[in-house]
Amino acid sequence: MSTRQTRTAARLMMSPAVVLLLGWMIIPLSMTIYFSFLRYNLLMPGTEEWAGLMNYRFFLTDPAFFSAMGNTLLLVGGVLTITVLGGIALGLLLDQPFFGQGIVRILVIAPFFVMPTVSALVWKNMFMNPVNGLFAHAAKFLGMQPYDFLAVSPLFSIILIVAWQWLPFSTLILLTALQSLDSEQKEASEMDGAGPVSQFIHIVLPHLSRAITVVILIQTIFLLSVFAEILVTTNGGPGYASTNITYLVYAQSLLQFDVGGGSAGGIVAVILANIVAIFLMRMIGKNLEV
Amino acid sequence: MGSISLKQVSKVFGDTTVIPGLDLQIEEGEFVVFVGPSGCGKSTLLRLIAGLEDVSGGVIEIDGRDATTIAPAKRGLAMVFQSYALYPHMSVRKNIGFPLKMAKMDKAEIDRKVEGAASVLNLTDYLERRPGQLSGGQRQRVAIGRAIVRDPAAFLFDEPLSNLDAALRVNMRLEISELHQQLQTTMIYVTHDQVEAMTMADKIVVLQAGRIEQVGSPLDLYHKPRNRFVAGFIGSPKMNFIEGAEAARHDAAAIGIRPEHLSLSKTEGDWKGTVGVAEHLGSDTFLHLNVDDIGAMTARASGEFDVSHGDRIFLSPRADKIHRFGADGNAIP
Question: Is the pTM value of this prediction over 0.90?
Fold first, then answer.
């Protein structure tokens, strides 16, 4: 009796929060779905009319859509590869005792606190600029032709910038995972005859697998929606060379004033993100089970 | 195979000297127990022998061969850790087979050895499980299995039973002793529990502050402790120490008498005391007494001896069981 009452009370108490959260999600989502079926252009206000699936047909048959999808996958995959491998390497290094450990750890984590627009601008103007950038100076010092990163290989440059931002995150998570490895396990494997390499493969890496899974899942969520770095560096160009789906939706709805087409793109992006999520959970979700 | 000798081995961590320099000979096939209060350096000593810590000075010889600078895996020793240190992501089979896999042994041979070890340790039904699905005692046995398959020159145990509950501890104590009888391999066992030391050892090494206080068989240590520390550490409940006039009567700075060597009587005896707390264990009763002119003492009475708080009783020490100690704490023969 008493438990039933507490349960009812708990539901009542929770309902405002649940309703608020649900509304926060449902209203924008249903608005977007609704707009995606309208012919809705900001240049022609008041002429909205039902358009059926036309917006979807246009968006999905647009050649830009396919290159944006490829770019999105390349961006996510590239950044994940760099941050996971680099994070493991940095984590292993920072796990060693050395002089000035505290300061170095703070320095390593610092990039994560720099906002994306700022770090992208710093990279664009101070490092990758073909005239004044540090890389250009280095190349000239070595007698080589400066490389125009953002013009020649824009997607790769953006991958570098985003990876630099996310490396501290993966380093931090993987470092704490490394530190939670029982030292007796390492000693036991040492007694069992495992050298540094087989110790890493057989003991350390399996111990890290859960942390790596967490890093991949969390980063994928955020990397699918990279936007600021593209906006301040390449504006998605040249052509569509560095446009991802997020940026394409932005371009469709706010540069071409086509709210209907943008909304359709947004819904397509939601569906794609869910497909990626399902694949990821299938592939690596079992690592999260106890 | 399996004699170990330590010559002037010392260990220093920064400014702290943990082991100031110690000699010890461990014979082949012996069950040696290092015992001492926490922080006495017994685990450090074991880790030095294992090679997990580098010695600061001195020589460690295994089978007459200088092993001081040899890598842990090459010393031919196997260690069972306090936390068992099983690899959580591997099945029991892979855990036990891991040292063999590292030694690049072929798969059929590994399987044969693992199954052999598993049948010795009653683990055959659990080979495909993960350590997380096993009970404490089973994990302990897996850790021992991982040590057995290597055919080591000696086993090193670092307080292996301290994570088990009391009943299981008694059980595992027997199993390890039984294993020693079967394998006849040298075993070095570290514990702070003197009961484990007394029941399992061929030879007990009592350590305090990195120094060896006494080496000997359990009964040697019990009957002929070399100094007050050993006398007080070995035996349960602890030996009673008496100083002052009573000790001077025996030409010593202090005398010691074990609780079990005091005879109790309600009518006559050498000393008279008041009963404090009485701990009834059934077979025995431990009496905490306040003896006139001497102070607090513990005495063991048979379970039938009927006393209660506040009773006045007489005690007499058995004359041949009195230990005499000089002012420096060493025993006077």
Answer: no
